[in-house]
Amino acid sequence: MTKKEKTADTPGIFIGRLIRFLKFGTASTTGTLVNTGVLLLLRGLFKIPVTIASPIALACTIFNNFTINDYWTWKNNRRKVKDAYFHRLLKYYISASAGALINYSMLIVLTHGFHVQYLISNLLGSFTGSIFNFCLIEFWAFRVKKDITIGEPLIEPKHPVAAVDEQDVNE
Hints:
mainly alpha; single chain; 171 residues; 7 helices; 75% helix
């Protein structure tokens, strides 16, 4: 195996993704609180139809989650990714919109089709959309870009996992 192949060993990658997933889950929990609070305020207090209140609540949630994820979950990637703040925000909104569409669709189907209470429908949709979002955000919005000319990360990892040259193995 070459040094490059050893650096991309799976245990380090798995642990890093697991930690990011747990942080993402924490951020998503705060997002669920924001989503539920805004939805409850718009629907419960101002009597705005759930079909209009939900997209507004989702937009607030996406911004909340972006802020937490940008500064905490993927903070190490933020230093490596050369994208400006608004470019990362745009990519995040595009990625999270897919999960928001899942959330919104489940809310509408469960609330209007199966007469499930709207806050419960929203929580089920939020959970389902969050799982989908993590994958899109991990592999696109906060992905560390590689140098196209040589295929290496723009910044080398501090602790490559089992970085060993072929000749070291043969000796």
